[in-house]
TrEMBL record:
Cofactor requirement: Fe(2+)
GO molecular function, one term: iron ion binding
Organism field: Dyadobacter psychrophilus
Keywords: Dioxygenase, Oxidoreductase
Record-linked Pfam families: PhyH (PF05721)
Protein name: Phytanoyl-CoA dioxygenase (PhyH)
């Protein structure tokens, strides 16, 4: 990257510090988030690249009104099983791989995020475990997260080149308090963010299923004291954020819905949809999930953790996936 580009990046950082973002920028807002979005007109000019098995117009209307869609039975079981087979190889032989894992247990403080080799094997099979960016190691993961039916919907809501931002693999429910994604998973344009939860098994009510507030993507933004993004100098805590979301959703009477989808179904949700993980009532019940975050090339032209480097990228179904510069030796080791 040139000196000029580095200076521009530094200038952007200084600007963000002194002039924090207070709202999504209307100039770069995805077309469907703007008032009076013409869905029929858009699809007439921009038909999907793939022949999808769902009604795109109906799904876009649901997205605009509710902040999420469920794409039913779009992922073949074989694709899921191949991916889960790669995951089993990982957790059964962690000493053979390099990738980042976070385990939110007190016993691992103060360094709860480490290379997978540094955690006891039995801990990797327990609760509060997040396997980060496993798609970089697993070709099956890359294929799964860029399935044509997922890509088609993402291209429709953004009308831009899609890039993969990050991924998480869970065996158990997260039990995470209510939150929105954009304050934490942030590209140059915070509104250019969507997430997909690919169900790797049928989700049971006692597994701590995901919940969300329907229509909450339109609610007023929370100010962390550093703008709408959470930063090192934020004066408001994640707990205060969660309390604000629950209270404001109740005031606006956004219905709270618990998601019980089936293996092969995919939930895609808006960057600003308020959601969280319910309490696990059966400690033995898993909630096998592959959660993927996506942005656009305009908003994320580089790997999210290496903004001054030219990324090494791969193309899957027209989606860019950036190689992980931290663990280049682990890229595509599971094929």
């Amino acid at each position: 990257m040139s000196i000029v580009q580095r200076v521009l990046r530094k200038a952007e950082s200084i600007k963000d510090h002194y002039f924090p973002i207070k709202e999504f920028d209307q100039a770069t807002l995805p077309w469907i988030d703007k008032s009076n979005a013409d869905i029929a007109g858009f699809l007439k000019k921009n038909p999907p690249r793939y022949d999808v098995p769902y009604d795109m117009a109906d799904k876009l209307r649901s997205w605009e009104q509710n902040g999420y869609v469920v794409l039913e039975k779009i992922i073949p079981e074989e694709m899921i099983d191949n991916f889960w087979g790669d995951f089993q190889k990982l957790v059964q032989n962690p000493d053979k791989y390099d990738l980042s894992v976070r385990i939110d247990l007190d016993e691992f403080k103060p360094n709860q995020e480490r290379n997978i080799k540094e955690f006891p094997k039995e801990a990797l099979l327990g609760k509060y475990v997040k396997i980060n960016d496993f798609h970089n190691s697993s070709v099956a993961g890359k294929k799964l997260m860029t399935h044509p039916y997922i890509v088609s919907f993402l291209e429709a809501i953004f009308n831009q080149k899609i890039v993969v931002m990050q991924s998480l693999v869970f065996m158990y429910g997260s039990q995470q308090p209510t939150h929105q994604d954009f304050p934490w998973v942030t590209a140059k344009i915070p509104s250019h963010l969507a997430a997909a939860w690919i169900a790797l098994e049928d989700i049971k009510i006692d597994s701590g299923p995901l919940y969300y507030y329907i229509g909450s993507h339109k609610m007023p933004k929370f100010n962390f004291g550093s703008g709408i993004l959470f930063k090192k100098d934020s004066t408001k805590s994640p707990l205060e954020f969660a309390q604000y979301l629950d209270q404001t959703c109740a005031e606006h009477q956004y219905p709270k819905e618990t998601l019980l989808i089936k293996k092969g179904d995919v939930l895609i949700w808006h960057a600003a949809l308020a959601h969280g993980g319910s309490m696990i009532t059966n400690p033995e019940q898993t909630r096998k999930s592959f959660v993927c975050h996506y942005s656009t090339e305009q908003a994320l032209p580089y790997h999210r953790n290496f903004v001054t480097q030219v990324p090494v990228k791969q193309d899957y179904n027209g989606v860019f996936i950036y190689n992980n510069p931290v663990f280049p030796q682990s890229e595509d080791v599971l094929k």
